Amino acid sequence: MISAALNIEQENKETKLQQANAQHTDMKFIVLFALAAWTTCEPLLTPKMLLTTKVKQLVTAFLSDEQLSRAIDIAALDIHNGKLVDEVMTDLHSYFTDSLDDTQHRVINNAYENMSKDLGEEGAQNVFERAKKIVSYAVSPAVEIVRVEGVTPDLSYLSMARQLTPNFVRTVAALVKDTLTPAEWNSARTHFGPMLQMLDNDVQQSWNPLPVTIP
Fold first, then answer.
1. Which residue has the higher pLDDT, 170 or 209?
2. CA-to-CA distance for 162 and 140, rounded, in angstroms?
3. 168-171 CB contacts, 8 Å cutoff, 24+ apart
4. What is the per-residue pLDDT for 108?
5. Which of 178, 124, 163, 160 lies closest to 46 in space, CA to CA?
6. What superkingdom does the record give (predicted)?
7. C-alpha 209: how far from its chain's center?
8. What pTM was computed for the model?
9. Exposed / middle / buried, residue 167 (Cβ in 10 Å: 0-12, 13-18, 19+)
10. Is the predicted pLDDT of residue 168 greater than 80, yes or no?
11. How far apart, in Å, do the first and last CA atoms of the chain sit?
């Protein structure tokens, strides 16, 4: 009887131990599954996707995804090849002249015509020339950083994305604003603001960085 009782007690202990081990194993699988689900749901951006998203949020959403992607490639390659900011801007201008669709050209032409009504043809052209010079001056240090860091396309995109912050955009816009007269600034902001949200330098942009993966 005593031996039988001891055997039953031992079997009960083994059963409880097996149940505890099974529960522990189940818990490990639950934890692993939860971690896998979390990492799968967390959005991962490539450097170019990150840069594209930041351009749309901080600079302009006027371009199509294809146009913006190609413009980024042109800028990155020009910087890698040692071109100056003015040369990069010239190449981008040539690309946009050829690639923008009729609706986009019409929007830009209407904005320029309205600004010319405000400032005169010569005055509007002068605004563009001065704004181009100050933008070139303002972004040159950032471009040099990209030139050093961008040894591969993805590193170029990542470096450009790092430089493109809300504060950087506000600083460039503020320099343009200080270069123009109040009338010039108000006209440019009124007519080109819908295309270039960076002209709204008073807005407090927010940016929540997402994980980035480099292939």
1. 170
2. 15
3. 168/142, 169/58, 169/59, 169/198, 169/201, 169/205, 170/201, 170/205, 171/138
4. 97
5. 160
6. Eukaryota
7. 9
8. 0.74
9. exposed
10. yes
11. 70
DSSP-derived 3-state class of residue 45: strand
pLDDT of residue 55: 96
Per-residue pLDDT at 209 exceeds 70: no
Q: What tokens appear for 163 in the block?
A: 């430089």
Q: What are phi and psi of 193, to 5 degrees?
A: -55, -40
Mean pLDDT of 63-72: 97
Other Cβ atoms within 10 Å of 113 Cβ, number: 12
Q: What is the CA radius of gyration of the chain?
A: 29
Write down the domain spans for the chain: 1-42, 47-199
79's tokens: 């910087």
Structure tokens at 16: 């409880």
